[in-house]
Amino acid sequence: MSKTDEIFQQRLAKHHDELRWLYMELYHNDSMFAELCTNLYRFYKERKRQLKTRDKKREEDPGWFRRNDMLGMMLYIDNFAGDLKGVKEKLSYLEACHVNYIHLMPFLDSPREHSDGGYAVADFAKVRPDLGTMEDLAGLADLCHKKGMNLCMDFVMNHTSEEHEWAVRARQGEGEYMSRYFFYDNYDIPAQYEKTVPQVFPTTAPGNFTYLPEIGHYVMTTFYPYQWDLNYGNPRVFNEMMYNFLFFANQGMDIIRIDAVPYIWKELGTSCRNLPQVHTIVRMMRMIGEIVCPSVLLLGEVVMEPEKVVPYFGTVEKPECHMLYNVTTMATTWNCVATRDTRLLKQQMDIVNRLPGEYTFLNYLRCHDDIGWGLDYSFLEKWEMWEIPHKRFLNDYFTGKMINSVSRGELYNDDPVTQDARFCGTTASMCGVESAETEKDPDKLDAAVMLDVMLHAYMLSQSGIPMLYSGDEIGQLNDYSYKEDPDKAQDSRYVHRGRFRWDLAEQKDDDKSIQGRIFGALSTLEQIRRQEKVFDASAEVYTYDVHNQKILCITREKEGEKFFGIYNFGDNPETAWMQEDGSWKDLLTGQELELKDVMVPGHGFYWVLHK
Ligand code: GLC
Predict the structure, then answer these.
(1) I want to staple 401 with a disulfide (CB 3.0 to 4.6 A). Which of 85, 355, 396, 511 is the partner?
(2) CA 118 to ligand 1 center in whole angstroms
(3) Which residue, 410, 426, 416, 607, is CA-closest to 524?
(4) Share above pLDDT 70 across residues of the chain, in percent, rounded to a whole number
(5) pLDDT per residue over 40-58, tens digit each?
(6) Cβ-based neighbour number of residue 187 at 10 Å
(7) Catalytic residue among 259, 434, 472, 532
(8) How far is the CA of 154 from the centre of ligand 1 (A)?
(9) Average per-residue pLDDT for the chain
């Protein structure tokens, strides 16, 4: 046996029994399991030497991704740089942003009209032709690796496009392919499902099934009617999707974002969300990755309340995802912006900070999706903030309907039945930059920029990995032009998916411009974050009570050093009631500070350190 084969065998031996056990539990199928193992070996053999070196290094340093220099940015290839080759050319801009983790939004072949922003994949082996080729992707990965950057992509595993070869053949009535989806020749079973399964897009895509008149069948479509849910009860689906995953790992992807993962297992009589079998599958995927490509991370997209999210880390002995989105904290942050009340955020952060240190969250202010107001209402009710009126308040606030609201943006899936509208808009527009510009009001603009920078500072000091949304670093505003494109007009998420404004980015170094003010401030914060060891993932992070509900205070401690991030969510100056001895350094100005009843400007913040 060659040396490299030995490595594979050792890794396989480590996981084989558990992998087989879980596989048999779901599929009771020895020959399909054997096929899987044969293919794991094939993908391992095909893996490039440089990637194997990366695997080895990272296996020896499993905490590699949790260091304080990790900074992510998510971007749409076409909006940002036209195509994959363009991204290659723009890497220097991303380096100037201190970004070393690039999340490329979906780029696989997907029908133009029915693409859901690329989340309806027609061919897992093909890049959307206008964006480039699989070789371009591998080439980009290669260059990123040389520059110390990591590449992330979406793995849309819950469904395929109706134009995927399997779907096309299923629609022609080929049983083998129909069994890879959920097909019913009458509405009896779909009707039973509808009793217990909630709706993802109640207004833009109501219901969970779509009727296909040409074959007289219903097919399960949890998301859009053109996204057919895959049947993971069929081992062929599981195996093939694992081969797709490994194929991308072998193109040089470092992070695989497993899209909509809570939805992948369906069971009649349940909500079809977060079922135990989902965890079995994610655990198997984790082991498969560790066997073939241990440098590759799994990032789970679980947009749910914390009790549902945390289980996707698995246990310390049997881990599932390496990273998960800190979604409730994100939504709660915006709640604080609207209410100027940080109490809920403090309690939300306390929950996150009490979790085992190995659990790594991805922190963000905005992403490509809407913000759902999934807040802890049982907590808010103590202050008489009831769910339905409170959601209405948040949406009225952020759409700018309320007097004195500076935010601008649009509702998403405004469901008249549940009154559960969600919200879309960019960070800068939500902070008031857009309205201040329209009104040409310099004071309002100053306040908006301060809020925008303060929120980023707060995000950068949370425990976990920060993820920027492309355009936010230069305060990009909402883009309403999607309304003129009939393929997009129905989906208000496009309001914050505008083209990257290179014309504005040119001003990033001009500290008189809005772009320069935001870019410069973020840049300073990012550099401090990289340099100071209190930002290390192993630091102890907790909130600190400063007896003023408008102010949130985050403490980070590491090897005798102590940091306070003090953030004023209020519009006016507020006092953080604290009495800390010793000399403190303002990390932004370098000046010494006393931490005795600190006055923080409206929407201002301090980053202070005691060594
Ligand atoms: C995820 C994506 C979202 C998409 C959905 C369906 O939630 O983030 O944009 O619409 O999956 O694939």
Answers:
(1) 396
(2) 9
(3) 607
(4) 100
(5) 999 999 999 999 999 999 9
(6) 12
(7) 259
(8) 10
(9) 96
